[in-house]
Each structure stands twice: as structure tokens, then as C-alpha cells.
Amino acid sequence: MHRFLFIVLAAVAGSKTTSYADDIVSSASASASTELLSLTNASAKQLGHAQQLGVIEIAPVNLPPESAGDCNHLGWPIATMTGDTIVVMHRQIPGHKAKGAGNPDPSMSYGIVLRSEDGGKTWSKPHDLRDCMAPEDRLRGGIVPLSHRAKFDKSNKSTLGYKVHLHSIGTTRDGAVIAINNHGVFRSDDHGRTWKHFSTALRDDNFPHEIVNLGPRVLDHPTHGLMAFGNWFGEANAYHKLNNKLVALTSADRGVTWSVEENDAGFPQYEPSVLLHEDSFLFVTRDQTKVRGHNQMSWSPGKSPTIIDTNLKDPRLVDTVDFSFNPITRRFELVRSERHRMELWLWSMDPADWASGIWRRECRLLGRTGDFYSTADGFHPAGAVIDAKRGVQHIFVYSGHPNGPAGVFRITRTLDTPKLTAALAKQPPATAPAKLSKGGVVMTFDDRNFNDWIKALPLFDEFGVKATFFISGKIDATAREAIQELRDHGHAIGSHSVNHLKAVEYFEEKSPETFLQKEIDPQLKAFKAAGVAPVSFAYPMSRNNKATDETLLKVFRHLRTGRNVAAGKRLSEDDAFFVAADRIGEHGCLYGKGIDYAPLRADRTYEQLDGALERAARNSEIIVLYAHRISEAGPGNFVSPEALTRVFSKANELGLQFYTYDQLP
User: Fold this and answer.
1) Cis peptide before 106 (omega within 30 of 0)
2) How many whole angstroms separate alpha carbon 268 and alpha carbon 285?
3) Which SS3 state, helix, strand or coil, does residue 353 take?
4) What's the rounded Cα separation, in Å, for the pair 155 and 152?
5) pLDDT at 24
6) CA quadruple 143, 148, 153, 158: dihedral positive or negative?
7) Mean pLDDT in runs of 10 for the chain (665 residues)?
8) Cβ neighbourhood burial of 83 (10 Å; 0-12, 13-18, 19+)
9) How far apart are CA 132 and CA 261, in angstroms?
10) Could you tell me whether strands 406-414 and 56-62 are parallel, antiparallel, or unpaired per DSSP bridges?
């Protein structure tokens, strides 16, 4: 895993006290942080560079100690600020995914809180809010709270407990902190140092409703009092039942008792993130119909919400967002997980465009390895806080394994979003590639076959293959998204021109200067805006000559063309396709061998390809291969996943290295 500097290291150990103002801890295990975050190499480098520019930092808030036992999954953090104090609340449970996780025990809690008085640099010891509960309330119905018995304690059919799932937190107008979680309602009047539990609030015998699933934020409204928003969750024996209601909880007595208003949203909205903006209640909420997108809602008490469709769509697995108004940019902003690719992104919108539902994707804040709910777990960025005095936003996420362990982290980023976006788009200073000595394969793909390439990423990862993708056409939003994902997996990007024209003919009919102006410069400018600086170019249709090479090698370090195998020779006998690894820097333009349709054509049977790979391994040479689509069939030129698997496995068997064009000196 890639290790980079964590600016702040924070609390690890647990605490069993109800007052902990002086218990400040400022050290933790950097190795544990690295393992739990499991950043991709590309994300780690990107964040490390942006961190050096002073626009972002990542640090642990609370990590599970080795003595944590089965309840070592710390997750779903939400936060609020009161004065200069940040208060964070999170869960401590056996896992997100019950199957494979440990068993509940008395340390299982849905109300672990920590506080920081120095902008998140140091944190108090973790404090369990249950410590201020009466024993009969703490264990009401069992160790596992009511809403999670169907998941973690299926044999327990008790209906006793607090009818809350997930949690909310907020600061009142007089500076108190209100926290609502699976154990009920809590209030602190001294910036989170000590807490009071309202024993009867939202308890089964005082709340004649279904379990309420809460969004992350508690508001204190001058007219309506305390307000928390959510959706009905079903009863204890109907876990995770979908419902179309927007539920508003209100308290006029600082959290002691709560009333309910419900209004039909017309779709199963879930965990709504609320923002009170210019006296309007605005929401961004999950659409649980297929768990693939977020909708906007506008609402007034006593009325049904107005629903606005958005461009916030994912293939699957949407998460709860943080929704805020940035006082620097004067724009709405969302921090939003993309769990299908295990990334965290920042989005923004001009408030004047609220009715459009169109959000602008600003920048990726974090990317980690693994598959969600299988080998990786994390994020839930809801409940971030804005520190206007310091000019930053503190975003709290969790990361780890779905069965535990998992830890809570702080991402602090500048509120100057354009500066942040520019810094994250910049590349760290490039270092000159080292001289090569080991034989290898330079695997390349051409054109704009983004869907095929992204779909094949698990195949590349399985065999440790890093490839170069030569992209033609405009570097539009679709291209930028694909580029980001390819680079996150360690692949390189090259230029394939704007209009995919034959360079030789273009040079002869017009001029070298015109070719650069029309076919190369616009694409390089667009690549730069996307944070990419290609060092290689692949000729469309392999049309090159001495004049084109001389011109383009002034722009690129390496070029790629192609040719047929010489008549009467086998591929392994044609020296044009092989370059000694330690002399690759002397060859600006490299011949590539096409493998589309392998093994169906005579010059690319498995026997031919095996022979070429064996020669490269035997002589410490490098061979360049190229293809287009990755598919079982056309249209267009394609190589099948089966053929790629055969090539990749044979190269690995022979000990060949897979190089990208970026790695060639």
C-alpha cells in the first residue's frame, strides 16, 4: 500500500467516563491508518501533492485498538461545531456486513463521541454516550438496540428500545449539542464535555410510530424548535422497510419530547440531508427505489415536499451525502460517495440553479482500493462541518473492511473550491523514468472504447497489468471520467489525435504545423485541464514516416506505429518488434503488434504470441502490443477477454514486466 504523510494523528484508545475534558490524545498508528484507508496509488499521490500545497489533509480521528474485540468497526461519523469545538459521533459495532462479522458484546455502541478544540488536530478520548444512561435504559430490550436486532440479534424478538435508526447531530442557537441515535436523545450544554440522556424520548412506550431512520442533521429553528428529518424504517420485525414519507421530528422543549409530521414524497426517500437556506428547507436525499441516485426536495411545514430530479446518478450503491452552503464560493456543495468505484467526490451548484437539479462535479477527494461490501467498506460523509473562521470544511468518513476493522477519519479541505480543484488536478512533479533492464510487454489500447476498458479493469488488476490507453477525439466529461478511473488503477494515457486522421497524408496535403495546431495541441490542452500530461502518441492507422516522427518527437517522448510481420517470418523472428530493454530510450518510435482477433488470425495465434513473449523474456527485450475494444465480438476491432487472459498469464509465467509508455525512458 502507498504510504503518505498524515498531518494529524488522533485518538485510538477508549474511555468509560462521562466527563473527559482534559483527556487529549495526539498520537496513533500511521500504519493502521494506511491499512484502513487503503488509498489507491493515484489517489495517494494526488492527495500528497495537494496536501503539500496546503489545500487538504487527511488524518485519523478514532481507530479501533487491537483490544477492541469483535466490535471493531467504527463508522458512520457525523459532526457539529459549537463555538470552536468540533463534536463527532459514530458507531462501534461488529461490522457493516453481518455475515462474516463478529458478535455483539457490551462494548457495542451507536453513540461514541469525541471532541476537538483545535480544528481537529487533537481529539479527546472516545466517550460512550450510554454511560450517562440509566442501566434499565441502556439495556432496554438487550445489548443490541431495537433497529438492529434483525441484523445482529435475530433470536431477540423484544420490541423494547428506542425507535431510532442511524443518527443526527446539531448545535442549538444557544450552543448546546443535540445528538440522536439508536440509544435515544442526548444533550450537552458544555460543548460535549458532559451529557444528559432523555430517558423517555423516542422510546417504544412513548413513540407510537414505526422506527424512524434519520438523516444526519439536527436544526434549531426559531419558530419550530429542534428539527430532525428522516423516513419510516418499519418495525423491529420488518427491518429496512421502504416508505414514501418524509418524516419531520420536532421538539419545543430542547429535546425532552418530540412530535411527528409526515408528508408523502412520492418515492422511497432515505436519510435526507437538510440545509436551512434563506428560510427554506432544502434536502438532498437518497432514492431507495434502486439505490442508484439522489433527488432534491424543497419542503415547508404542513406541506408535501416538491421533488426535483437530478443528475446525481450511479450504477448502484448510493450513500448519504453532506449538503452545505459554502460561504466563500456562495455555492451549494455536496460531498458524495461513489461506492461502486470506492471514491469520494465534491459537487457544487449555484443556488439560483436549484430548480434545474444539475450539479457540477468538482473534484475527487479520495479513492481507495477494493470492492464495496466485499473487500472494502467506507465513507458516509454526511454531517461535515464548516469552520468559516479557519476557511475550511471538516469532512468525516470511515474506512476499513465490511466485517471490521474500520476507523474514522477527518478530511479537512479549503473552502476555496476552485483552488482545491486546481490543486487536485495538478500532477506531482514528474521524475525521469529509470533505465530499464528487464524484458517486458507494453500493452496498449486505442480510440474511445471506455466502457470495454473500464469493465476489463478487474482483469488487468488480476494479472498486475498496467497498460497505456491512446485516446482519440474530444476530452469531454465521458473521457475525463474514464481517464480518472484508468489512472486510479495505475494505467497511462496517451494521445491518439483529435480526428483520427492519417498523419502522413495530412503532412503532405497541408503541413506539419497545421497537424499540430488541429490534431495535437487542442487535445493536449484538454488533457492538461483533466490533469494529464501524455508523453506518448499512437499514429492513427499506423501511418507514419520520417517527417512525421521528427515533428512529433519534439512533442512526445515516444510514438507508436504498427506494421505487418515480415513475409516468410514468424512473429518471434521479426526483429522490428523487439527492442532491448536497456536501449528502449534510443528508440523514439516503436512498432506495435496488433492482437485484435487473436488467436483467429495466422500472425497472432497463441503459438505465435507465446513465441514472441518467450523471445522477449529470453533476450530481455520489450515488445509492444495493441488492440482496440475488449469484447467477445464486434462491432469494430476487438480482442476477447479470453485472449487477453492467455497473453497476460503467459507473460507472468515468463516473468515479463508490464510497462506503460510513461515508464519508458
Assistant:
1) no
2) 10
3) helix
4) 9
5) 31
6) positive
7) 32 30 41 90 87 94 92 98 98 95 95 97 97 97 95 94 97 98 98 98 97 98 97 83 94 98 96 96 94 95 96 86 98 95 93 96 91 94 96 98 97 96 74 86 98 94 94 94 88 97 97 97 93 94 97 97 96 98 96 97 97 98 98 95 97 96 95
8) exposed
9) 29
10) antiparallel
| Dist CA 525 CA 522 (whole Å) | 5
- For 447-490, the DSSP string reads ES-HHHHHHTHHHHHHHT---EEEE-S---HHHHHHHHHHHHTT
Distance CA 250, CA 254 (A): 10
Task: For residue 51, give the DSSP letter.
Answer: H
State the cell numbers at 299. 419542503
CA–CA dist 365, 393 (Å, integer): 12
Which secondary-structure segment (H or E) carries 44?
Answer: helix 41-52
Query: What's the pTM value of the predicted model, to 2 decimals?
Result: 0.72
Name residues whose C-beta falls within 8 Å of residue 332's C-beta, 6 or more positions apart in sequence: 275, 277, 323, 324, 325, 326, 348, 349, 350, 351, 354
* Cα–Cα dist 531/57, whole Å: 20
**Nearest-5° Cα angle at 172, 167 to 176:** 85
The residues pairing with 367 across neighbouring beta strands, listed in sequence order, are 343
Cα–Cα distances in angstroms (integers) from residue 470 to residues 87, 158, 204, 447, in the given order: 48, 61, 61, 6
